[in-house]
Design a protein that fits this description.
rod-shaped, mainly beta, 9-stranded antiparallel sheet
């Protein structure tokens, strides 16, 4: 699973720096504080489906469930200096840490394939819904002083904010390619690649690539 944390800090930084000239003119909330990260591991699941066949053309739908339990995390900081229109020299540092877990997800897909002997190569497209657990903590340290002869007094800001949620349900899209091999009239083996991209969760975008091997029965 790959997760892009680059926008996960934006809401918290914007909240800490709300109504400030630093945010209005240089938008620290848009800085990409955290990098992307990936994790690998097994995914388990099952599926049910229904097929219709016309000569060699096979079309159908399937409903799948996968238990992923895949977690990623990132921590980093970013610092910048800039002069605002009030002639203050500002130094802003953002320290952040974010954790992100895909607990499980379900897919509903349409499938089309071409039967060739005992083999059925196919393609799938569909929708997905994932269950996520996440948490983000941000600390903003800002300090500044007027550049003479500008008036004003130096300032220092140190403030933290956090957000998180369990069982956040998020939609997505799914696509994949695979092949079934009918080893008996009622049993087949399956090999498949599937890609699922989820909508942003707390500013983070995630996707999962899976290579699957399984067995199924036909009724």
């Amino acid at each position: 699973m790959r997760n892009d944390f680059s926008n996960s800090t934006s809401p918290l930084v914007a909240f800490i720096l709300r109504n400030t000239i630093q945010e209005a003119e240089f938008s620290p909330s848009t800085w990409a504080t955290l990098p992307a990260n990936t994790t690998n591991g097994p995914v388990f699941g099952g599926y049910i489906g229904y097929n219709m066949q016309w000569d060699q053309l096979v079309v159908g739908v399937d409903l799948g469930y996968k238990y992923a339990n895949r977690a990623t995390e990132a921590s980093d900081s970013i610092s910048r200096q800039f002069v605002t229109s009030d002639n203050f020299l500002n130094a802003v540092t953002i320290d952040a840490r974010s954790t992100f877990k895909l607990v499980d997800y379900a897919t509903f897909r349409a499938r089309a394939g071409y039967a060739w002997g005992n083999f059925l190569p196919y393609a799938v497209v569909g929708i997905a819904a994932g269950r996520f657990r996440y948490g983000t903590t941000v600390t903003v340290h800002a300090e500044g002083a007027p550049i003479p002869p500008a008036p004003g007094a130096p300032y220092v800001l140190d403030q933290s904010a956090s957000s998180g949620k369990d069982n956040a349900i998020v939609g997505g899209v799914a696509a994949g390619l695979g092949i079934d091999w009918a080893v008996t009239p009622g049993m087949f083996l399956r090999a498949e690649w599937e890609y699922v991209a989820f909508a942003p969760v707390n500013g983070s975008r995630s996707n999962i690539n899976t290579g699957k091997i399984g067995a199924g029965a036909r009724f």
